[in-house]
Amino acid sequence: MCSQARFGGNPASARTCAARRLAAAAALRARDRQGPSIRFQLLNQPALDDRQQTWSARHFTATPFMTREKVSASWRHYLGPSPDAASVSPYAAPVRATDLSGLPAAHIATAQFDPNRDEAIAYALRLLQAGVPVDLHQWAGTFHGSPATVSAEVSRRQIDELTAVLRRALA
C-alpha cells in the first residue's frame, strides 16, 4: 500500500507510511538512550497497539484495504505467532509506553474508517498530556490506505498535507 510514487518519489515520505509503528518506537528508544536526536514524528494512520481493543478496532473489521485479520496478521508477523501479552515492549507497541514526555513533536493523521484510528487518537492525546506538541488530523470519510486512491480529491489533499508537513519538519 505504501509507495514512493504516492509521495512524489520522496523515499523519506514513503517511509512514514511503511514504518509508522517503527517511527514511534524509534522516537521512544532514542529518548530513552539519549540519542540519536529525533526531530519529528510523522505518523500517518499508525498501528500502535497490538491489543486491538479500541472501539474502532472492534467495529471497523472489514474496511477497504484493512481488515481485522490483516491487522492481526501484521502484529503476528511483527511480534511472533503467540507473544506473551504482558511482555510486549513499548518499543514494539508504542501505545504501551507509560511515559511519553520528552518525545519529539508529532503530526498524527487518522482515517475515519480505520481499525487503528482510536489507538492513534489516544496516542496523540497522551502525547499532548505529556507536553509533546502534536498536530492531529482526522480525515473524515476516509479509510486506512485511502491515499492510495490517488484519483480521489481527498487522497490528493492527504498526500499534499503529508508532504508539506514533512517539508516543514525537515526545513
TrEMBL record:
Residues 22-145 form the Alpha/beta hydrolase fold-3 domain. Keywords: Hydrolase. It comes from the Bacteria. PANTHER family: AB HYDROLASE SUPERFAMILY PROTEIN C4A8.06C (PTHR48081), ALPHA_BETA HYDROLASE FOLD-3 DOMAIN-CONTAINING PROTEIN-RELATED (PTHR48081:SF8). This is Alpha/beta hydrolase fold-3 domain-containing protein.
